[in-house]
Amino acid sequence: MALGKLRALRHALVAAVLTGALLPVVSTGVATAATALPPGFVLRDTSTGLGQYQLTDFAYLPDNSILATGKGGAVRWLPVSGTGKTIATLPVRIDEDLGLVGLAVAPDYATSHSIYLSRAINTSGGFVMRMSRFTVTVDATGAPSGLTGEQSLFEVPGFFNVHGINGITAAADGTIWMSIGDNADFRQVDAGALRAQDINQPYGKILHLTADGKGVPGNPYYDANNPGSTASKVFARGFRNPFRFSVDANLGLPVAGDVGWNTWEEVSVVPRGGNMGWPCWEGTHPTPGYSGLAGCGGVQNQPPIFEYQHGSGIMQGNSVTGGIVYNGSSYPASYRGSYFFGDYVTHKIWTLRYDDQGKLTQAPENPPVFTDIGGPTKFAAAPNGDIVYADILTGNLRRLTYSANNTAPVANASSTTDPDTRTVSFDGSASVDYDNDPLKYDWDFGDGTTAANAGPKVTHAYAPGTETFTAKLTVRDPLGATGTTDIAVAPGNHTPQLTLTTPGDTATFAVNQEVAVSATATDAEDGTLPITWTTAVRHCPSEATCHSHPGIGGTGTSFAQPFTEHPDSRMEFTATVTDSAGVATSKTYTAMPRQHRLTLLSTQPAALSIPVEGGVSSALVTEGASFDVEAAPLGIDGVSKFTGWQGGPTATTWVITVGSSDMTLTANYATPIDQRYDGDPALRTKLGAPIGTEVTDGPVHYRVYQNGRLYWSAVGGTKYVTGPVLDKYLAIGGSNGFGPPTSDTAATPDGLAQYNHFNNSGNVGSIYYTAAYGAHTIYGEIRKKWAARDYERGLGYPTTDELGTPDGVGRYNHFNKNGNIGSIYYTGAYGANAIFGEIRKKWAALDYERGLGYPITDELATPDGVGRYNHFSLNHSIYYTPATGAHAVKGEIRKRWAALGWERSYLRYPTTDEYVTNGVYRSDFQGGYITFTLSGGAVDRPW
Organism's domain of life (predicted)? Predict the structure, then answer.
């Protein structure tokens, strides 16, 4: 079938491995593939040297070079310019989805050289999936040359060659995020997929780990006594194959693409403790073949923010690749803050937008505007924020650049002269491109000769005769933008000599700290020359988005200025001298900021922002800088309220000054649980002190106290459950088994019982506890019937949970009211009906439903008010009066009695059950009897 072919294609594309054939290396340039892009956008390709079906992941290093991984185990280093090289080849298992598939660069890479890799590895008994930290070794030039010191941080056995460890994200706070699929058989319904629901198994999860591989204390199931447990590591569950996720810098939450099974692909903003529902749900739909499994009972689904159906239609696809939020500034404003994601089977990229509550605010474009763009398997941001993705179909990194906003490069050049040979050496390596594009250098020497694409450093010998020339350097980026500068040249003149004295290249400065520099200048022809100083503030939100703000200048041998308060900036102090021939020499000292890591945290997931840093929640900021930080009034759940900053104001905005070390600011949020507990002294007395942090379990939150629990849900609000009712609730699976509570634990009016009501996806249930009968569940149609009969005031208290009858057809609860036993039985055919007292005793004596069938009426009163009765599904009835007791009437005798008018006939009420005498069936009544034989049928006679 077509769908099966699509699934096979999806897995084949990931699994494909070329044996011994790599694509030839091509230079960086504008892509020529038949892509369809919005106006102004271009794709620029860089070969990784890995070839088709090999490129799985990539990441930028601090110097803007790139590490890339190949499915077969290769780790490649791609310099900013020049030829890449393979620095390591790791042993891997490469079957189907497996191989070397995940890469992250540690935030302290500049000093630690640490990276993280995930891969599958063969073992004697099968294979394992492992995430490890490695150290990148470097050569004499500082270029990566190898990997060493593997430290395994996470390892689990593998079951199938699909849906293993997918992605790794190394967060600025030193923690590690990781995704792993269900590792179940995709070809059929596999009960092993239910591992995705079990918080004690790592499969089908997004995990949040400390740097040593333990659980992060803020995780929803974290156990301080066992931080290395699987549950302690789980951030969210219920994923089939979360193939690529990123952590939204504003929300602090993962945003993931989850690859579907038969029908649906998903994109989700993943809340703490979220349950995305797999395998019980696919998107917002119960999964055929899985949803009926016992392990799916009561599983609630966190709906994705977007889902799309399998197929080849305009808005369809077959394998989602989770992406990233665009936080650059070169794209049109309509794309800023948009989430880019793709489908690698159908070669599309969409964008969508969501708000600070993680709710969809702008659906993906219909039709998609980025099509035929290759097979994206990983998205990342270029240094200037451009969207870059790994194309598994070609092995290229493809950078999506908006050409209309391409920044022209800036040409800078200097020269030195050997007057004896009239040779001038030119150096244009100080030229910059703020889009981080590689540059080409074209030289015009001013004497009629040129050198095109000659590199940043050239020399040129001038012929005698003319003493001054004006040379020109033109630099070009890949999109054709240019920058030029003129250089005055006097071939027979010595270049002025300038000596600059500075605080040193390793010095850093706080805001308003004085930066002092000095210089001396001499010239062979002119002697001592006067020095002119210029300054600039270089604002660099990222290394690729630097731009200058001119500052104050001066003259003299020394110069000083306070360090700028402009955020993300450095200061440039340039000394310039010019000799009598017009030849100038300049030298620049760059004063770097003394920076510290500012991290915003919150007690509940919430949108936190450092506006001056582009709205992220963690950034390097300059010592002494003052600016505001902001917290959303409500948490991501929409109900947790901001109450103030720890150690700071109660307002959501706090103006802070950066100190002399790293800073962590924590925003306090009172969840609905906190709000109720803190605001109710009587409740605090009842529940006692909290003994654990608040836990998020999908749409339900709870917190454990000495004497019970508080639960919050959108359907039930904040309610407490205590005592034996709580014990029973937990024994049946808590909110996952019975839904969240919709009432507090309360006493019944007679004071004999305690109870809570619950709601499981619209199915209302209750747990009632009495000392005599214990705690029992009652729900669904049986509970509705019990409620209709006035709860315990009618039939009494439940003495059993809802149970199934031996034949599997019916369900029932038993009850007891002052020693009077009753029951409610339910079947799909006859609904729920109550039976109790003497009639129930007679029914029980006749073997319950195995004798007369199921009750098809409640116990009812006869029209004359004397008797009571139930009818049953096998065409039987039991009638009761105080004078006659309870007796069963059935079959042909019952038909004859009914034809005569039941108890209104002369026979009145039965005084015996049906019995047999001399081969004749007979029932006796107050006014006579009815006999039945096969030959004579049913005959009534008076006494």
Answer: Bacteria
